[in-house]
Amino acid sequence: MLYLLRLVLISIQFLLASVVNLLICFARPFNPDNSRLSGWMFSVPALKILGLKMCLETEGLKTQPNPFVIVANHQSNWDLFVLGCAVPRRTVSLGKKSLKWIPFFGQIYWLAGNILIDRDNAVKAKAAMLHTTVVMQEHDTSIWVFAEGTRNLGRGMLPFKKGAFQMAINAGVPIVPLCCSNYKKTMRLNRWNSGNIIVKTLAPIPTTGVTLDDMPALMEKCRAQMEACIAELDARAAL
Questions:
Q1: pLDDT value of position 99
Q2: In this structure, which CATH number among 3.20.14, 3.40.1130, 3.30.1370, 3.40.1350 belongs to the domain 2-237?
Q3: Do residues 57 and 200 make contact, with C-beta atoms less than 8 angstroms apart?
Q4: Which of 17, 145, 232, 239 could be a cystine partner for 164, CB 3.0 to 4.6 Å?
């Protein structure tokens, strides 16, 4: 019963947040700080409705100067509500073009200035990736990427795609790993206290002097750090 009630309430909250976010985005379309405001509107009320206790250990994002590339683990569609509150100022994300057509969310995502990639068109995809360098270097904007490329459904991190690391190297900006504890298999929405979630950022990984030849080692370094951190967060969240 509680589970169904929460689904109804979260649907209503999603619609209300969408209306507010559309007004924000229409008032200042493609402003790179729209993602932070929209993420907050989707996330903070939702966490209370879902009964999830969030612990944010992301102080480093407040002092880290733009631009940088955030590399985060991607668990499920619930990430919108879980990670939305962790989006820092002037940060956009990289997403597939089809997201644009999702009712409400897609229009907000587009108007918030996020970068859409047509994965079925190699030429357009390459142009979009090159555009990220301009966005970071000339517009005081950082980019959030789910490096796995798809949802891992709480089964552990999938192999990383190259895009986030290639962007960071080309722009000469640091990579900031952002780790979220594995909530997908542990949250229980039929309980008043649905579970604990911890989100933590790690120290920036510089890319100065790094070339594309060094990218495999850079990817492995980032992934190893994140795996170790997520294991630690899982143990703490279970207490």
A1: 85
A2: 3.40.1130
A3: yes
A4: 145
